[in-house]
Structure formats: structure tokens, C-alpha cells
């Protein structure tokens, strides 16, 4: 770890600087705890670099400004938190249908409603299934360390443009507020050519327009099918996860985001107690690594889903297992993250009860 | 090895900065480390705290229920966090503002007049770094040299002129327990 490039940095600042490194030309946002540092940092940095920064009058305005900016072919983003990301759902549906590479960072806080400013993981459904209308899918990436805040911000900008699809970085208040050593390196992805579709001015070529719908039944059917065909390609190419000690495991603990840090420590304790526990963390929540979970379940491995909500990812894991093995939920709706000790105790209880039900 | 530290005191006592120096010291010492602040409707004069976790391997939980070390600079923080010190752990308190009471026999207590020492050095603002000096004298995994590196890193070139005073505060703090 004696890498002089490492800096001790807050998750929020890491995301903001990573966006700058990724070539984000415009930031639009409205302050909300616990992600305000992103806008704060960029308000100075973007000006310094001669790039765009607007503190919008509302979240609705901010995401529509992002749609406008990315439609010209440049990289742009907004960031917000839970209850304010709820206000952006309509735009995400439009952006998915318009095939616009919108990048949205959600640093989750407690919900529902206004909720509270402390971290939670209650926006899994909001991010993965979306609150917008119609059949659409967005790419969702969930970091678990400050280093991943950087790496996945890079990836979010790349995937958004590569597939012309809205992409969400789903972090949480804990990651946003904590500091951890991390290194930025260089933006590792190639630049995507947007000249074939971007609304860059019609001088010397025919005018273009981007519509969210086709005003013809057949064309609209084809449009939706194409969107889903595209997402199949994304699933094939971009699904990612982290897996430790699953080969000989009887039971696999799974969690996303910063909660996964605690299950990684919990499996070590469980193994010391003679329980063969494994670790599985989806990095892409959408596309979800269903196929790998299904393969592991087929080998008879049971799953325990650990999350800070009422069991949102639980349903996707259960769907992926498809009845081939048992599943239990260890959760808390919000508040202090489940500690390593609580997780270990819960896993033992679940195993004693023969995986009866969730706690 | 994984150890955690809770630093707590009044808003304005430099708690978050002390935590940042501590975390940088561990990072520059080649360890994995995290820093997590309490955040909420905090205000000046209220209490503030942050948690630093250091580990040889990847840091697991960033925010724990109990702690190995509590470094507290005022009475409210002492009352609150003495309950959260693990059996075998230690609480290090600023005796200028904290009454010396030892109600638990399963933890170690260390008292040093941190604000008084800081005032003698010329500024109560330096209490936080004095407290880190005291911490280094009771915590085996934390060296004074590592803290000096942390101070240099945090103050950087912009506030370079403050480095000698901070080093002095660190020294004074590290000798405080022996002297009392």
C-alpha cells in the first residue's frame, strides 16, 4: 500500500474528481445532504477548467439540463440523494427512451418520504426498477469503497456513452462522507465517438432530432424491442460481481455497496467458527448477476442477503436462485449499519432455524 | 489487526481535523484506514465526533458499535463514549474539561490537561494536536513520527508556517501522561 499516489479522500470528493478526470464537461445539481460536497467541489473545479457548472433551481431542472447537455455529445452529470432522485424519475424514463448517456449519482439517505440524512440502502428498487413510466432499463453500479467510487464513476461515464443509456452510480451516505486512501490514476477507457447521433449543429449535414417516442405503432414496438435488445448486450458484456470463498461454501453471504465490507469481514469470522461461508457482491445491480447466482444455487449453496432496507435486493437474489436452494434475509431498514458481530450472530441463528424465514 | 478510535469533543475543538491527521498518519505508515464523521444537524458548541479504523488488511465496518480507543476532549463526550469502550480498551480524556472519574474497572483511563497544555503553548486551538500526542503515548500502534507525517500532509504547503507549533504540541502531549 506504500503507493505515494494514494490520497486520503472523502467518497463525495472522489466521485467529483473522478467525474472531472473522466471528461465530464457539465455538472448540474441542487444541494442535498449527504452528497453536497460533490456540487461544492465541482462549483470551483469546473469554473477553473472552463467547463459548465449550474446550481439548478430544482432537481427536475438539473436532470433535464443534463439531458440537454448530453444530447450534444458531451459528457455531463448530476448528483443527488434519495428523495430528490425521486424527482428525477420522469427524466430517466425519457433519457432511456431517447438513448441519452445521462450520468446520475445517487448518494443514498434514509427514506421513505423526506426520510433523514443518515445512510441507507432503500433506493435499490428506485435505481434498478425505476420510478419512471414504461419499459426501460438503466445501468446501475454500486461501489463499496472510496476506490470504487472513483473506478465506477469512470465506468459510469464510459458505459453511458458506449451504450447511449442512462447510468446510475448508487452510493450511500456512508461512502459519501467517509475518507479512505484511494488513487485516481488516469481515466482508463477510450473516448466514444458521438458524431453519428449528437445534436451538434446541422451545418453541412441534414438536421437531426431526438424523440422519446415513435408516433407509429409498429415503430414504437420496434423501438422498445431495440432498447431491450441493447440491454441484453449490456448484460452479456458488462455484468460484474466480486466473489470470495464460494467454491467450498455451504452458505453465501451477499450484499451490495458499503454493506458488503461488513459481510466480507463476517465470512472470515464464520469460517473461524467452522461455518463454510462465502462472499458474493453484485457490482452491477442492473444488469444483475443472476446467472452466476443461479449457477451457485444449482450447486446447492444457500444464500443470506444482508442489506439496509426491507429486502429489496433479496427479491432479485431469490428470483435468480429460482427455488434451487434456500435464502434468508438479514436486514435493518435504516440507522447504524449491521455490524460484523450482528451479521455473524444472525447467520448462526438463520442456520439453526434451518433457513426458516427472514429475521 | 484492526483497531478503531473515536475522537469526540465540542464543535470547534478541531476533532474532525485531529481525525484527519490520525488517518493520514496511518495511511503514510502503510496501513489501511477509514475516517467517518458524525454528520447531521451539528452546530457550533454542540458535540462532534469521528471514527478512525485502522487495519493491516481491508477495513471492514467503518462505523462500529464499540471502540478500542476513545479520545474525548469535553465532559459530554466522556459521559457518552466511556460506555462504548471495549473491555481492555482505553479512554483518553482532556482533564482540563473532564472530571477524573473511573467508574469502570475493565478499561484503562488516561487523563491529561490538554487545553491547559495548549494554552501554555500559546493557543487553545492546538488542543486537538496535544490530544494526538497524548494518544501516541498510550497507543502502541501509533508513533509520533507517523503523526508528524500526518501533520505535514494535512497542513501541506499552504499552512507550512504552523508545522513547528504543531510538532511542539505533539511533543508536549506525548509527555503529558508521564508528567502528571
Structure write-up:
By secondary structure, chain A is of the alpha/beta class. Chain A has two domains: 7-187 and 209-238, Rossmann fold, CATH 3.40.50; 241-352, Rossmann fold (3-Layer(aba) Sandwich), CATH 3.40.50. Helices cover 40% and strands 18% of the residues of chain A. In chain A, the strands form three sheets. A seven-stranded mixed beta sheet of chain A has the order 3-2-4-5-7-6-12, sandwiched between helices. Chain A has a five-stranded mixed beta sheet with strand order 9-11-10-13-14, sandwiched between helices. Chain A has a two-stranded antiparallel sheet with strand order 1-8. In chain A, strand 6, helix 7 and strand 7 (167-172) form a beta-alpha-beta unit. In chain A, helix 10 (259-272) packs across helix 13 and helix 11 crosses helix 12 (313-321). Chain A is globular, with a radius of gyration of 21 Å. Chain B is α/β, with parallel strands linked by helices and 180 residues long. Chain B has a single domain, classed as Pyruvate-ferredoxin Oxidoreductase, domain 3 (3-Layer(aba) Sandwich), CATH 3.40.920.10. Chain B is built from six helices and six strands. A six-stranded mixed beta sheet of chain B has the order 2-3-1-4-5-6, sandwiched between helices. In chain B, helix 1 packs across helix 4 and helix 5 (144-155) runs antiparallel to helix 6 (163-179). The longest helix of chain B has 17 residues, at 163-179. Chain B is globular. In chain B, 49% of the residues are buried. The chains are: A alpha/beta (359), B alpha/beta (180).
Amino acid at each position: 500500500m506504500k503507493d505515494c499516489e494514494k490520497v486520503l479522500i472523502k467518497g463525495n470528493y472522489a466521485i467529483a474528481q473522478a467525474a472531472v478526470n473522466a471528461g465530464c464537461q457539465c455538472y448540474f445539481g441542487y444541494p442535498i445532504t449527504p452528497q453536497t460536497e460533490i456540487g461544492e467541489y465541482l462549483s470551483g473545479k469546473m469554473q477553473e477548467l472552463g467547463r459548465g457548472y449550474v446550481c439548478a433551481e430544482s432537481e427536475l431542472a438539473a436532470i433535464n439540463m443534463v439531458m440537454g447537455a448530453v444530447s450534444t455529445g458531451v459528457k455531463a452529470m448530476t448528483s443527488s440523494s434519495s428523495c430528490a432522485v425521486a424527482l428525477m424519475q420522469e427524466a430517466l424514463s425519457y433519457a432511456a427512451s431517447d438513448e441519452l448517456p445521462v450520468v446520475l449519482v445517487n448518494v443514498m439517505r434514509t427514506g421513505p418520504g423526506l426520510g433523514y440524512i443518515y445512510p441507507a440502502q432503500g433506493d435499490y428498487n428506485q435505481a434498478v426498477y425505476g420510478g419512471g413510466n414504461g419499459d426501460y432499463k438503466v445501468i446501475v453500479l454500486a461501489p463499496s469503497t472510496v476506490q470504487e467510487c472513483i473506478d465506477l464513476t469512470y465506468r459510469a461515464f464510459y458505459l453511458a456513452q458506449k451504450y447511449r443509456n442512462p447510468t446510475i452510480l448508487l452510493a450511500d451516505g456512508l461512502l459519501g462522507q467517509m475518507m479512505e486512501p484511494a488513487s485516481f490514476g488516469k481515466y482508463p477507457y477510450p473516448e466514444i465517438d458521438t458524431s453519428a447521433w449528437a445534436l451538434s449543429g446541422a451545418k453541412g449535414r441534414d438536421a437531426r432530432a431526438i424523440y422519446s417516442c415513435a408516433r407509429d405503432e409498429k415503430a414504437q414496438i420496434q423501438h422498445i424491442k431495440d432498447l431491450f435488445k441493447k440491454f441484453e448486450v449490456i448484460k452479456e458484456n458488462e455484468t460484474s460481481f466480486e466473489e470470495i470463498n464460494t467454491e467450498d461454501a455451504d452458505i453465501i453471504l451477499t450484499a451490495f455497496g458499503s454493506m458488503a465490507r461488513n459481510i466480507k469481514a463476517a465470512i472470515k469470522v464464520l469460517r473461524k467458527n467452522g461455518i463454510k461461508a462465502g462472499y458474493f457482491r453484485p457490482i452491477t445491480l442492473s444488469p444483475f448477476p443472476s446467472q452466476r447466482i443461479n449457477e451457485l444455487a444449482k450447486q446447492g449453496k444457500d444464500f443470506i442477503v444482508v442489506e439496509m432496507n426491507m429486502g429489496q435486493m433479496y427479491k432479485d437474489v431469490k428470483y435468480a436462485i429460482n427455488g434451487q436452494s434456500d435464502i434468508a434475509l438479514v436486514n435493518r431498514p435504516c440507522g447504524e449499519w449491521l455490524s460484523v458481530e450482528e451479521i455473524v450472530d444472525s447467520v448462526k441463528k438463520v442456520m439453526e432455524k434451518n433457513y426458516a424465514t427472514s429475521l | 489487526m484492526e483497531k478503531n478510535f473515536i475522537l469526540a469533543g465540542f464543535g470547534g475543538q478541531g476533532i474532525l481535523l485531529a481525525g484527519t491527521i490520525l488517518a493520514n498518519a496511518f495511511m503514510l505508515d502503510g496501513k489501511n484506514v477509514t475516517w467517518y464523521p458524525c454528520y447531521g444537524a451539528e452546530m457550533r458548541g454542540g458535540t462532534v465526533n469521528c471514527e478512525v479504523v485502522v487495519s493491516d488488511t481491508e477495513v471492514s465496518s467503518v462505523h462500529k458499535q464499540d471502540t478500542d480507543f476513545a479520545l474525548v476532549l469535553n465532559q459530554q463526550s466522556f459521559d457518552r463514549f466511556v460506555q462504548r469502550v471495549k473491555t481492555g480498551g482505553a479512554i483518553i480524556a482532556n482533564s482540563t474539561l473532564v472530571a477524573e472519574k473511573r467508574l469502570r474497572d475493565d478499561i484503562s483511563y488516561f487523563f491529561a490537561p490538554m487545553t491547559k497544555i495548549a494554552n501554555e503553548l500559546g493557543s487553545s486551538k492546538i488542543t486537538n494536536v496535544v490530544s494526538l500526542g497524548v494518544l501516541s503515548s498510550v497507543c502502541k500502534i501509533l508513533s509520533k513520527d507517523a503523526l508528524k507525517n500526518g501533520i505535514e500532509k494535512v497542513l501541506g504547503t499552504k499552512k507550512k508556517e504552523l508545522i513547528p507549533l504543531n510538532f511542539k504540541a505533539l511533543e508536549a502531549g506525548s509527555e503529558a501522561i508521564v508528567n502528571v
